[in-house]
């Protein structure tokens, strides 16, 4: 029997409920500690907030929640390429040709299928998967048998695991990201810790390679790919006196993005001043950290998110 409640009822916690947000079918999870909202389209986390705390994840005030379009905010899944396909390693580019090749791959705006939902004590586990590659128009050019699923576990932290299984008979190369938009008190009051001492690609200056000397304070448009990273990055937010912890697995690369003033004006579903309230730190497999899978092999990109008091 499904654990999902189709009705509006006062919940026993934890509780999973289906709701509609404009055109999108969503799953709303409530536990004693937190609320989580996930759109079946794109398996996109839309909201994650602990009761009595500021949201951990940012959602645009201008988000459209439309069928076929990724929602601005939350945690979009970028797969099987990240960003502009033409900037990807040749072995990734060569698997895709012709047609419309959108930024960040093919699965952000398509319906995913809910495969599992389970309440275990105080925690909730959901698994969503893309439809078989041969059945989805967007994925039809991929070899049949490639599987992608996102496991979402909410306990006292939020854990996401994105697993690709190459059930095809061909070698598969891909890049990907869990494109997390974090909520911040003010971009002027945050520092990203854990990048210092590591290489990055400055995409805004001819994709030049640089080294991050110290913890990053974002003070202009920022769009960088960091490489050879340790698992843990943190966002210290002095305005909200908290530190968001981002613990990656199956990944040594991350993208840090804030559009700042003028790019904000050109972005869809994005208020002109919203750049001050968000910061993307995206857990990724990009550039030389791409994923290569022989037939039968699988890879899991994971991230665990939580926050602590800044002093703690
Ligand atoms: O507007 P989109 O397709 O959601 O992309 C948003 C941003 O996503 C980031 O991951 C990229 O590094 C940026 O270059 C890009 O602008």
Automatic annotation (TrEMBL):
Keywords: Isomerase. One of its GO terms (molecular function) is glucose-6-phosphate 1-epimerase activity. The active site is at residues 179, 282. The keyword Isomerase applies. CDD domains: D-hex-6-P-epi_like. Its EC number is 5.1.3.15. It is an enzyme of class 5 (isomerase). It comes from the Bacteria. InterPro entries: Aldose_1/G6P_1-epimerase, G6P_1-epimerase, Gal_mutarotase_sf_dom, GH-type_carb-bd. It catalyses: alpha-D-glucose 6-phosphate = beta-D-glucose 6-phosphate. One of its GO terms (biological process) is carbohydrate metabolic process. Belongs to the glucose-6-phosphate 1-epimerase family. This is Putative glucose-6-phosphate 1-epimerase. It comes from Herbaspirillum seropedicae (strain SmR1). The lineage of its organism: Bacteria, Pseudomonadati, Pseudomonadota, Betaproteobacteria, Burkholderiales.
């Amino acid at each position: 029997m499904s654990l999902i409640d189709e009705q509006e009822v006062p919940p026993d916690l934890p509780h999973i409920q289906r709701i509609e947000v404009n055109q999108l079918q969503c799953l709303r999870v409530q536990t004693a500690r937190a609320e989580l909202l996930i759109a079946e389209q794109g398996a996109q986390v839309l909201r994650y907030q602990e009761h009595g705390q500021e949201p951990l994840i940012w959602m645009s005030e201008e988000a459209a929640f439309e069928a076929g379009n990724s929602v601005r905010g939350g945690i979009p899944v970028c797969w099987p390429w990240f960003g502009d396909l033409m900037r990807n390693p040749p072995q990734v580019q060569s698997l895709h040709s012709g047609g419309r090749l959108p930024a960040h791959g093919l699965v952000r705006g398509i319906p995913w299928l809910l495969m599992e939902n389970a309440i275990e004590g105080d925690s909730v586990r959901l698994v969503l998967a893309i439809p078989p590659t041969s059945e989805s128009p967007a994925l039809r050019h991929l070899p049949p048998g490639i599987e992608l699923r996102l496991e979402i576990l909410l306990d006292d932290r939020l854990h996401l695991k994105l697993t690709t299984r190459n059930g095809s008979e061909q070698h598969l190369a891909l890049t990907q990201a869990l494109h997390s938009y974090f909520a911040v008190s003010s971009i002027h009051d945050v520092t990203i810790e854990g990048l210092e001492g590591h290489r990055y690609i400055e995409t805004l200056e001819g994709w030049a390679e640089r080294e991050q000397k110290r913890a990053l304070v974002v003070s202009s448009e920022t769009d960088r790919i960091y490489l050879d990273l340790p698992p843990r990055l943190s966002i210290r937010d002095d305005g909200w006196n908290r530190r968001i912890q981002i613990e990656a697995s199956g990944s040594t690369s991350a993208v840090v993005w804030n559009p700042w003033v003028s790019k904000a004006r050109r972005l869809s579903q994005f208020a002109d001043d919203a750049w001050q309230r968000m910061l993307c730190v995206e857990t990724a497999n990009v550039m030389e950290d791409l994923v290569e899978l022989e037939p039968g092999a699988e890879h899991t990109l994971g991230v665990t998110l939580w926050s602590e008091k800044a002093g703690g």
